[in-house]
Amino acid sequence: MQANASSILSLSIWVPILAGLLVFATGNDSNARLARVLALIGALAAFAVTLPLLTGFDNANAGFQFVEKSVWIERFNIHYHLGVDGISMVCVPLTAFITVLVVLAGWEVIEKRVAQYMGAFLILSGLMIGVFCALDGALFYVFFEATLIPMYVIIGVWGGPNRVYAAFKFFLYTLAGSLLMLVAIIYLYLKSGGSFDITTWHALSMPLPVQKMIFFAFLLAFAAKVPMWPVHTWLPDAHVEAPTGGSVVLAAIMLKLGAYGFVRFSLPIAPDASRDLSFMMITLSLIAVVYIGLVALVQTDMKKLVAYSSIAHMGFVTLGFFMFVGGTIMPLAVEGAIVQMVSHGFISGAMFLCIGVLYDRMHSRNIADYGGVVNTMPKFAAFAVFFAMANSGLPATSGFVGEFMVILAAVKFNFWVAFLASTTLIFGAAYSLWMVKRVIFGAIGNDHVKALTDIGAREFSILALLAASVLYMGVYPKPFTDVMHASVNALAKHVAKSKM
Amino acid sequence: MATQMANEMIINVPVMVPVQAGVQAAQSMIPAYPEFILGISIAIIMMVDLFLPKERKVVLVWLALIALALTGIMSCALLASGARAYAFTNMFVADPMANLLKIGSCIAVGATFIYSRRYLLERELLTGEFVILSLFALLGIMVMISSNHFVLLYLGLELLSLSLYAMVALNRDSAVSTEAAIKYFVLGALASGLLLYGLSMVYGGTGDLDISVVAKSIASGQAKKQMVLFGLVFIVAGLAFKLGVVPFHMWIPDVYHGAPTAMTLMIAAAPKLAGFAIAIRLLVNGLIGVAADWQSMLMIMAVLSMGLGNLAAIAQTNLKRMLAYSTISHMGFLLLGLLSGVVDGNRLNAVDAYSSALFYAIVYVLTTLASFGMILLMARKGFEAENLDDFRGLNTRNPWFAWMMLIVMFSLAGIPPTAGFYAKFAVLQAAVGANLVWLAVVAVLFSLVGAFYYLRMIKVMFMEEPADTAPIASDRAAHALLSVNGLALLFLGLAPGALMTLCLNAMKASI
User: Fold this and answer.
1) Residue A156 in contact with partner chain B when CB distance is under 8 A
2) Biggest alpha carbon–alpha carbon distance for chain B
3) Calpha distance A163→A71 (Å, rounded)
């Protein structure tokens, strides 16, 4: 039983990767159908193997569970070391779940190089799960950077007209950040006397200037990934050009890799630096929330609008991580931020899927090209309005829970921070609902809209699954917060202790 | 009493010589068997060449491959024995590092033969001279790798260089090739001269040509330091030329570009291993006593190479030139490992750093083989696939090789999970271990610049439509080898541990 339980994470990582390779092997487009079916089976299998995590996870245990450890590269004492705690556990099934939806979303839409498209997403899914599970610094880095390869290809091959520019920008921005993280990781390895074990690094004491250096190196990597203002400019480009599936994965999972990095590396490894620099982090997060929220308001491209809204929402996540009260982070804020992470995964994914649905029919993402879609696509309109509401943080949707928790914590921290943060509820509502008004409601804008057909069973089921998740998490978030409670409290305790 | 002692000394002196000679005579020749096997094979192949009609010269390639296999197996056997052995009155050393590099060189030359066979046949360049010169070049490489003596080292170097000069010019009617050959020859001769001058200075300073004796002489403080340092400057310059690092890199783009691609691969792959080996022999085995001096020289060259190589590569539209500049930057990275061995006179980091550089060199050669192998594969009669545009839409034309080339490019860029990442990782680790964090930061910033042009290559293959729809030449051996080569880069990216440990142990036993 024990041996069985401890290979779940390996399976979660390698089942999608192997399935992806298998899909690759189906070759060219002459048997595209086989590629699609195989990809769906692979994605479902990959999701199925993550489910034992949900049932077998011990909520009371703050440490790492489902741990696997074996020597990988002896020369550098690098281990194949996997494990999840309450913070990362939720992300594993989430990733696998989103991948199933992405495969379904690309079912009929992708017509050229189907096998490569599906294969790339499956491999990407395995790699991202690897990032969440890795407990070895080098292993983490390998997964973290390897995710760039499939995403680069996805944006560059199946993207829009300006895809090459977007793909390069995406790759180079994120690589720039992560290369300095590589130096930091190597530095930590040498500093800790030759260990890549993240938990060893957590216990490593370092003087403040060194901690700050490490903090900044990690900050560059994670801030570019999240993305935080001012290194966010790649995201709108990447989102606009990426195919729908690419946008979904990017918004739902990839951005979380950066946020997760803050919790796993920056805070516990450099707690004193985090405390010292928390003001800066809060400022950057608030700029993302307020300024980027305003930027989203004036977008004329739907995908760009949702992309900016993603940056604003991720600003909430980083805000939640870095509010220090009494020398440590606030568990309420961190839990809120993580809930926000998961919820944003569902909502932004759904928003991009909705835009994808329209784009597949109209080949336009311009808000001005639409109007009155509700008249021809009533089912779709219901979903679109629901997700827009969730995006603006309507109570009883998951979007509300995370934001509410973070704002609640922020009031304790500082009134003005809370005040600025809560403007998101206004801006979020403004840009989401204004877009809905212009796209969905009103009189039918033109003949193209008149000719629209409503969503079919495939699209309906994808959106319905997401809507159910959003509602469930909004109405009854307790299972999610219960899972992370112990780990977050342990983290707060750890951060409270100075490591200088 | 004193007279007696003096007498004894006088008597002892002539007695000592035969004793020493006796010891040396007892030295086994087994360590040099790989060279013997190769030398004898060359003689046989030369003979066979005489009796082969012009259209059947391809037989020579198969014979050469057999010779390479035998040489490689012999080196493997010596590597397995794990010991360091001397031959020829200590002039020749076969330590694990040497045997490992010899195996690598045999593989590199063998792969070059397989990749370039069809290319050369189509251009009527597959002559006996090509095969024999290649094997002579390899013999030179192996002699360099195993030399423990300045003269033997120089001998190997010249054997390699002269063979390569002639090979670059093998396509006599091509003006570009001839120009490249002249450039290579003039600059190469200059570099050899510099190296020789440096060696003679060190000889003057230490009084010996034997590398281990030179090291002892410097360590004991008997050497004339100033003279050694003076010679060191020239030695480093000569080495820098052979490795192709800035500011001694000028020949690389022109020669890589001008030479027929098969010859380019011959120059780009195995000789880099020899360059690495003589750097270890001269700088580490011989002159480690003045490490602080050569390390600072290498540091400047490393930064310049990574900078210039990566920046200049961006501007290239010719793939061979782009890879030439990429080579320059990679050699800069290799130097990171070489210059991190001695920290404040302390050699604790030495094995770590030099084995990282060794790993880097081997991975670099593997990657280079695949990248030029791809160019050779794409070429066909009357058409050189050497421009970036010739790879347009490769994913449509042949997805398998497009993905292989993608692995190669990401390996060159050092993105996991490919072998190139661990090579970069290892040398960066060495640099940080030597308290050179700033240098590691500079290196990663330049590798970011480098990522751009490797990504552009992938863009050309994957994100553009093909301009040229001719099918890729069918050459089963080359196809299979290229697949193995590409997958090896991926495999080493997933499980680099074994090769890393091999490099570490080889270096431990060799310095």
Assistant:
1) yes
2) 94
3) 40
Give B417-420 contacts, CB < 8 A, sequence gap 24+. Answer: B417/A142, B417/A146, B417/B490, B417/B493, B417/B494, B418/B489, B418/B490, B418/B492, B418/B493, B419/B363, B419/B366, B419/B367, B419/B488, B419/B489, B419/B490, B419/B492, B419/B493, B419/B496, B420/B363, B420/B367, B420/B489, B420/B493
**A75·B417 Cβ contact <8 A:** no
Tokens of A420: 């600025």
- Looking at the DSSP bridge assignments, the partners of residue A79 are A71
How far lies B255's CA from each of A258, B169, B370, B463, in Å? 45, 10, 19, 31
Q: What is the ipTM of this complex?
A: 0.89
Q: Give the whole-angstrom CA distance, residue A134 versus residue A443.
A: 52
Count of beta carbons in the 10 Å neighbourhood of residue A3: 6
CB neighbour class for A41 (10 Å; exposed up to 12, middle 13-18, buried from 19): middle
pTM for the full predicted model: 0.91
> HSE on the CB side for A399, CA within 13 Å?
30
Q: Report residue A80 as tokens.
A: 């194949």
Mutate: best of A139, A186, A213, A214, partner B, most B CBs <10 A: A186
Chain B residues at the A interface, defined by Cβ less than 8 Å, are: 395, 399, 406, 410, 415-417, 421-422, 425-426, 428-429, 432-433, 437, 440-441, 444-445, 447-448, 451-452, 455-456, 458-459, 462-463, 495-497, 500-501, 504
Token pair belonging to B308: 């210039």
A189, A244 Cβ separation under 8 angstroms:
no
A48 interfaces chain B, CB cutoff of 8 Å: no
Tens place of pLDDT per residue across chain A (500 aa): 344 457 888 888 999 999 988 888 887 777 788 888 888 898 999 899 888 888 888 888 888 888 888 888 888 888 898 888 888 888 898 899 999 988 888 887 878 888 888 889 999 999 999 999 999 999 999 999 999 999 998 998 888 888 889 899 999 988 988 888 999 999 999 888 888 888 888 888 888 889 899 999 999 999 998 888 888 889 988 888 888 888 899 888 988 999 999 999 988 898 888 888 888 999 999 998 889 988 988 888 888 898 999 998 898 899 889 888 877 888 888 888 999 888 998 999 899 999 888 888 888 888 888 888 888 888 888 898 899 989 888 888 888 888 888 888 888 888 888 888 888 888 888 888 888 888 888 778 788 777 888 888 888 888 998 999 899 988 888 888 888 888 888 888 888 887 77
- β-strand partners of B147: B92
Residues of A in contact with B496 (CB under 8 A): 73
Across the strands, what pairs with A133?
A: none
Lookup: tokens for A295 = 């930027």
The closest alpha carbon to B133, from B152, B116, B150, belongs to B116
**Distance to chain A for B101, nearest Cα, Å:** 19
Q: Are B399 and A157 an interchain contact pair (Cβ–Cβ within 8 Å)?
A: no
Locate all alpha helices (DSSP H) within B147-210, ordered by sequence: 150-168, 175-206
Question: Alpha carbon of A142 to those of A47, A173, A196, B143: distances in Å?
Answer: 22, 17, 13, 39
- The DSSP bridge pattern shows strands A328-329 and A324-325 to be antiparallel
Cβ atoms of residues B449 and B413 within 8 Å:
no
A168 touching B (Cβ < 8 Å): yes
Quickly count helices (H) and strands (E) in chain B. Answer: 21, 2
Whether B227 contacts B234, CB under 8 Å: no
A183·B441 Cβ contact <8 A: yes
pLDDT one-digit tens code per residue, A183-238: 999 999 988 888 888 888 888 888 888 989 999 999 999 999 888 888 888 998 88
Digit-coded pLDDT (tens) for B394-410: 888 888 888 899 999 99
